[in-house]
Amino acid sequence: MNRTRVISTQEDLNRLTDKLRDEKAIAVDTEFHGERRYWPDLFLIQIADSSGPVAIDPLSIDDLSPLGRLFESDSPVKVIHSARNDIDVLMHHLGVQFASVFDTQLAAAFLGHDRQTALFKLIKAECGIYPKKGHTLSDWSLRPLADDQIEYALDDVRYLLEIYRNQIEKLEARGRLEWYLEEAESLTDPSTYNNAAARLFRKVRSTAKVRNSRLPTLWALINWREDTAKLVNKPRNFVLRDHILGAITAITPISKRALSRVRGISGGFITKWGDEILEVIADSESSPDKEIPKIPRYHSRPGVSARTDILRIFLKQESCRLDISPELLLSKDLINSLAKDPPDNKEELSSLMELTGWRKEALGDDLVSLLKGKLALILNPDGRAGLHFIRID
After folding, report:
1. For residue range 154-171, what is the model confidence (pLDDT) as tens digits?
2. For residue 58, is the peptide bond before it cis, meaning its omega torsion is within 30 degrees of 0?
3. Full set of structural domains in the chain with CATH
4. Is the pLDDT of residue 135 over 70?
5. CB within 8 A of 90, min separation 6: which ones?
6. pLDDT score, position 123
7. For site-directed labelling of 90, which of 29, 233, 331, 389 has its Cα 20 to 30 A away?
């Protein structure tokens, strides 16, 4: 292992973090394995500052708290590509909340790139460098790590600070920096990383078509699975798959025999967790949780399909005009909700959480005009191919 590039002692880590506190910005990345476990195992932390990149071996250092204190401080800025996964892993292992994060993937979406643009594409676009590939599926748990593995890992932070400087300059030039900062606030909000149960509740409820009267049971089962998966450190689907959760909710069995009739449940599951499942169901019926996540209620009006098509065309044209990723500008879920239950006025539109702040500024009154029938879609009048929106009385 290239010892000059790897921090593997407490003394070296302390020295490194003391040095990094004087930097304006540092680049951060991690290598972890999340398969077959609930909590991903952390095997490498890569950091780059103005002097270059280094890797930290968390398997060789007992106390990572100096690194944690660095991440939760306002300075330096932590530059991360596709930050949420790395932050989530580091928050769990270090027990800290992050501050001052800059996500180069999110910033790229404000500059015309795809919402999920890969790092290697940004390195090509911003630095003119074609990074090497080859260790995407490396087993990072093995020691010693090979020199080429380390170099591959360091490439993930080697160019991030240059990309960060370029993106800040472009965001400021286009008047988009405030838009980016508003959108990026969620990256350091702890609730961003604690909403899995609510998200899964809405997903299972929708796909399994669970009746409203059964929602307390579904919410109780979702939370039971989440707690159990954490306890045994296994993926959620190892404990119970989503569609089986929905089936149990629909049937609400009161005995192991009734539970065994649910398709897809094994005898081993019933032996191990059957009693707990029945207790959860009984408790949810006798004392339902009043803090169930809200389910959006749509009053579908005629013309949903047509509105959806028009909104997609509108989104494509607006994203081209603004040079912003369409997925960032309007999510698919928001388009669907607008098509099913369009707001009657600007005030109703502005009340939607997803259409406040920079999105409201970016889209202006055009979205309201579109939904109110004040914009018409025509072929471009100058004879060139393509579609064009015009305002009508």
Report:
1. 999 999 999 999 999 999
2. no
3. 3-193 (3.30.420.10), 196-286 (1.10.150.80), 304-391 (no CATH)
4. no
5. 28, 30, 42, 45, 71, 96, 98
6. 95
7. 331
